[in-house]
């Protein structure tokens, strides 16, 4: 018996797309302006997911210069056909819709092939024999209102690497006034074509709908029970919200499941971002029924017929500085391994005081990891002797205008530990304490959206509210990350701060 607890991917892992090759499942997610882009996870049991690679690792693959944190890479789809894995996604900041291929999902993945005349976001692929079809979303040519979108299909010539023939509109949503028809995936199941899509926008009204047709190009008939999955009818206080953007998968035993995104807000704020959930699907009268008898995403699924649970090695919770970097580490707009960092023989990280700050739309010296729970302990030892504008420490980051920064810096020859929270146009210095010596321990203790900061085991002040650092308050699509940071704040510097391993503990 395999017991699967939702979410199956905690933290900022939105827009899941899944495929299966014999007994192995592969799943990818959006990464926006973080790098490396599009992590690839593998599982044998739909429960335990191991990060096996990254689709967009090389500089040439991922152009994010100037991208805001919620721009960049949107909604990838992963598919397998004839010995090759395909990932198709959108870079909303540079180039639009593109696909990459790999024989091994661990990588390396090819350079991106950008598609011309492919407007819109959320591309997907559907293979019929050896013909490949691009399925996309776009705003209608003459939209009647904001969010008036349609789903379209066009043949993609894989040899010529371009869209060919004419695009055909398949569907524009299942409700009278559909807003944001998007996230489409197309499947042929028992001779019938099914178009799965998201409607309602990725927030409270998010939902999964379906339409079917006997012919690939339509006409598509909306399921009379649409939306086949949503949580909007459960009200704002239901613990799991914003459910939508699904992808279907069949097990080797012909059972069906759907992965989809959702949030787990606390006081209306979901700082973990959009996470990935799983639900069972059965077929009745030729339509998918999600979570039969329940009609919502379950807290937990139990399956006797699923592949025996795979063995998982306990992962080392502390992030050690190694070369290559721990795969949990991400940077802003470029792979953190391409920062001018150095890992020393004793496992420390030398992080340069770059001129860029965490607010700049460039590549700051920030090496972070996703927040996986709102109760956490993050701790690091830092050795630094900042001069002038230089500062280094830890950042709890939602976006370039919403973050908490705890840094060691210098003022009039005196070293200080300064904690600042920025919420849009509102900057607040939460504490400023004098410190002595070169080596300091910075601790961030998070509990239900209150953050306590300790320096060298000294409390710096009262816990303060960090719940506003989230998409519900600040807009955007990501979740929070936390990491080490150094900056000379727009000055030149050839110096660096040294960090010990990043101690990270997330509690359920
Ligand atoms: C994604 C789209 C969406 O491409 O948010 O509102 C976008 N829905 O499906 C970013 O995740």
From TrEMBL:
Domain Beta-xylosidase C-terminal Concanavalin A-like, chain residue ranges per copy: 346-500
Site-annotated residues for Important for catalytic activity, responsible for pKa modulation of the active site Glu and correct orientation of both the proton donor and substrate: 122
Signal peptide: none
Superkingdom as given in the UniProt entry: Bacteria
GO molecular function annotations of the record: hydrolase activity, hydrolyzing O-glycosyl compounds
GO process terms (BP): carbohydrate metabolic process
Keywords: Glycosidase, Hydrolase
CDD domains linked: GH43_XynB-like (cd18617)
InterPro entries linked to this entry: ConA-like_dom_sf (IPR013320), GH43_C2 (IPR041542), Glyco_hydro_43 (IPR006710), Glyco_hydro_beta-prop_sf (IPR023296), Glycosyl_Hydrlase_43 (IPR051795)
Active site annotation, chain numbering: 15 (proton acceptor), 182 (proton donor)
Sequence similarity: Belongs to the glycosyl hydrolase 43 family.
Full protein name: Alpha-N-arabinofuranosidase
Organism name: Lacrimispora xylanisolvens
């Amino acid at each position: 018996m395999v017991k699967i607890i939702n979410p199956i991917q905690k933290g900022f892992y939105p827009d899941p797309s899944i495929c299966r090759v014999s007994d192995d499942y592969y799943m990818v997610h959006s990464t926006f302006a973080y790098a490396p882009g599009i992590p690839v996870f593998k599982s044998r049991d739909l429960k335990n997911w191991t990060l096996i690679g990254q689709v967009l690792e090389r500089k040439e693959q991922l152009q994010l210069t100037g991208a805001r944190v919620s721009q960049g890479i949107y909604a990838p789809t992963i598919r397998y056909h004839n010995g090759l894995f395909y990932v198709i996604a959108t870079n909303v900041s540079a180039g639009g819709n593109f696909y990459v291929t790999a024989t091994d999902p661990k990588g390396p993945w090819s350079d991106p092939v950008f598609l011309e005349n492919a407007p819109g976001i959320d591309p997907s692929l559907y293979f019929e024999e050896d013909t490949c079809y691009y399925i996309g979303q776009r705003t209608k040519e003459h939209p009647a209102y904001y969010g008036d979108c349609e789903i379209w299909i066009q043949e993609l010539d894989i040899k010529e690497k371009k869209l060919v023939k004419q695009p055909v509109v398949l569907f524009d949503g299942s409700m009278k006034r559909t807003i944001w028809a998007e996230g489409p995936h197309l499947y042929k199941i028992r001779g019938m074509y099914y178009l799965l899509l998201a409607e309602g926008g990725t927030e409270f009204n998010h939902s999964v709908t379906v339409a079917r047709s006997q012919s690939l190009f339509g006409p598509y008939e909306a399921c009379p029970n649409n939306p086949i999955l949503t949580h909007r009818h459960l009200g704002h206080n239901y613990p799991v919200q914003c459910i939508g953007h699904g992808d279907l998968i069949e097990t080797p035993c012909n059972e069906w499941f759907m992965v989809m995104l959702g949030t787990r807000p606390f006081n209306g704020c979901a700082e973990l971002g959009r996470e990935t959930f799983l639900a069972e699907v059965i077929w009745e009268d030729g339509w998918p029924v999600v979570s039969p008898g329940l009609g919502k995403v379950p807290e937990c699924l139990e399956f006797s017929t699923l592949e025996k649970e795979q063995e998982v090695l306990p992962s080392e919770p502390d992030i050690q500085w190694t070369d290559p970097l721990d795969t949990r580490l991400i940077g802003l707009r470029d792979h953190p391994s391409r920062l001018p960092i150095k890992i020393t023989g004793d496992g420390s990280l030398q992080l340069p005081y770059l001129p860029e700050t965490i607010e700049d739309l460039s590549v700051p010296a920030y090496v972070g990891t996703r927040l996986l729970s709102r109760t956490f302990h993050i701790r690091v030892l830092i050795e630094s002797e900042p001069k002038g504008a230089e500062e280094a420490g830890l950042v709890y980051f939602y976006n370039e205008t919403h973050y908490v920064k705890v840094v060691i810096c210098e003022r009039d020859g005196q070293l200080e530990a300064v904690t600042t929270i920025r919420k849009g146009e509102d900057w607040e210095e939460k504490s400023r304490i004098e410190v002595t010596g070169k080596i300091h321990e910075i601790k961030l203790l998070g509990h239900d959206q209150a953050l306590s900061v300790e320096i060298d085991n000294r409390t710096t002040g009262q816990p303060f509210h960090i719940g506003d650092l989230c998409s519900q308050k600040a807009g955007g699509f990501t979740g929070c990350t936390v990491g080490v940071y150094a900056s000379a704040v727009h000055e030149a510097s050839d110096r660096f701060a040294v960090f010990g391993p990043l101690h990270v503990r997330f509690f359920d």
